[in-house]
Amino acid sequence: MDLHLSFGPLAALIAGILILVMPRLLNYIVALYLIVIGIVGIFG
């Protein structure tokens, strides 16, 4: 069985689990996500 995972859904799953465990991480995760999306958009 061959399993292919793309980064987006995997990152969303990990972020969701971390937010459930430690809700304070939400601010940092959202900020990092926006920064990464911005960098990819500029240099992508």
Structure overview:
The chain has about 45 residues and is mainly alpha-helical. It is built from two helices and no strands. The mean pLDDT is about 80.
**Major β-sheet annotation:** none
- N-C termini distance: 32 Å
Beta content? under 5%
What's the count of strands? Answer: 0
Q: Choose one word for the global shape.
A: flat
Q: How much is the average pLDDT?
A: 81
Number of helices: 2
> What helical percentage do the residues reach?
over 70%
Rg from C-alpha positions?
A: 13 Å
Strand-and-helix sequence, N→C? HH
What would you call the structural class?
Answer: mainly alpha
| Low-pLDDT residue intervals, each spanning 5 or more residues | none
List the main descriptive attributes of the protein structure presented here:
44 residues, mainly alpha, 2 helices, 77% helix, DUF3096 domain-containing protein, transmembrane, transmembrane helix
Chain-wise SSE layout:
Elements (H helix, E strand, L loop, with lengths): L6 H15 L3 H19 L1
Short characterization:
With 44 residues, the protein is an all-alpha fold. The protein has helices at residues 7-21, 25-43. The radius of gyration is 13 Å and the shape is flat.
